[in-house]
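Progress report, Aim 2. The chain analyzed during this reporting quarter is listed below.
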Amino acid sequence: MPRPVARVLALLELLQSGGTRTVTELADRLDVDERTVRRYVGHLLDLDVPVESVRGRYGGYRLAPGFRMPPLMLSDDEALAVLLGLVAGRRAGLATDTASETAAAKIRRVLPERLSRRLDAVLGSLAFTDRPGEAVAPESTVLLAIADAVNHHRPLSIRYTAADGRRSERTLHPHGVVAHSGRWYVTAADLTAGEDRTFRLDRITGVRTLPGSFEPPAGLDPAKRVLTGLATAPYRHEVTLRIQGTAEQIHTRLPAGIAIVEELPPSSADPQTARWSRVGLRVERLDWLPAVLASLDRPFIVERPDELRGLVEALAERLTNSARRSPPHE
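Predicted structure tokens for the chain:
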């Protein structure tokens, strides 16, 4: 590539990094004089790249927003980061398979053959230790409309299909968008039901922004609200435990999306004793809980249900019998 062309592309890459660049800075970075920088900017304008001239003491050049998307220029590290991000996003449910594959194909089409071969080697040798979850990416039009309403505090009208198939139209004051375990949620004040609710974005089939605005409540934590909502959803069994440990220690085995942990005050008789916490769960099955409680390796008390006590005792008996077994004689 002739050096002037290479430097024009290098100028574009500097401008794409954002902000306003002074002529002196650009001249130093490109190793040319300021007159040449202005000539290179003229070349970019001839290519319809929207470069703006900023006057004043701190003026210089910058890329104008909108108009036409300038050519995408990625370094080796940036190209690898983008492609790995697309792979990870697809596995985590942050993007649809189709969108991820077409975006990756477009990027790889414009990569030099040398870099393309190296990236193929990375992606071809990449293995994951975890299985991809049941990821469900929302429609991009739904996600973008809701995110915009959250940022600008605009009310929304949505069409929603509940888990049991019932359909409804609701008016929301959306508070935040949360991605959790391969699914997307919006926390909102549901004006139709008169209460705060959490909705899955993949169950929303239509979004319409309504006129007006609202003031979101202070101190709101959308991620915490989603986790609390999942942990308190109605299931077959309600479990209450007391576990010796802090919320942080207990959440290493019982995540916030599963368990609500309330740290109890220390004993008045001996404030130096280890802290206990009350733990609440709602689960469809109990059979997995004894092994998780054993893995915590902390004293615990089962308050309810009685069925869980029996399962813990059965696991303890199996472990004791296994520990007492002698290896077979050869």
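The first strand starts at residue 51 and ends at 54. The chain has a mean pLDDT of 83. These observations will guide the mutagenesis work planned for the next reporting period.
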